[in-house]
Automatic annotation (TrEMBL):
Pfam families: DciA (PF05258)
Domain of life: Bacteria
Protein name, as recorded: DUF721 domain-containing protein
Source organism of the structure: Cyclobacterium plantarum
Length: 104
């Protein structure tokens, strides 16, 4: 008696979970969405506690990151360092995840 029906037998090939997960994201065209959610989720770790505590909301639409900052001076400083923030995001998550940042 066979354990699996014909055509659905398991193979002995093994792959690391990370590779399989990335293949799955590619197959279902969810890689961009996953990367965007990861940027939002890890904003505090990426920017630090001070920026994270003064960030009221974050969202990404059409590869543009919208960050609502509650502190005026911090917002101006972030606008001046926009290219550095963009390069941090590109370095960690890929350059196609976020193409622009708008500070509100």
């Amino acid at each position: 008696m066979k354990k699996y029906p014909t055509g659905t037998q398991r193979t002995s090939n093994t792959s690391p979970l990370k590779e399989v997960f990335e293949e799955l994201l590619e197959a279902y065209k969810l890689k961009d969405t996953y990367s965007e959610k990861t940027v939002i989720q890890e904003w505090g770790a990426l920017m630090g506690k001070t920026v994270a505590s003064r960030t009221q909301s974050l969202s990404i639409r059409k590869k543009v990151l919208y960050a609502k900052i509650s502190s005026g001076p911090l917002k101006k400083e972030m606008i001046m360092n926009k290219s550095k923030i963009m390069s941090l995001i590109a370095e960690k998550y890929g350059k196609d995840v976020v193409e622009d940042i708008v500070f509100l």
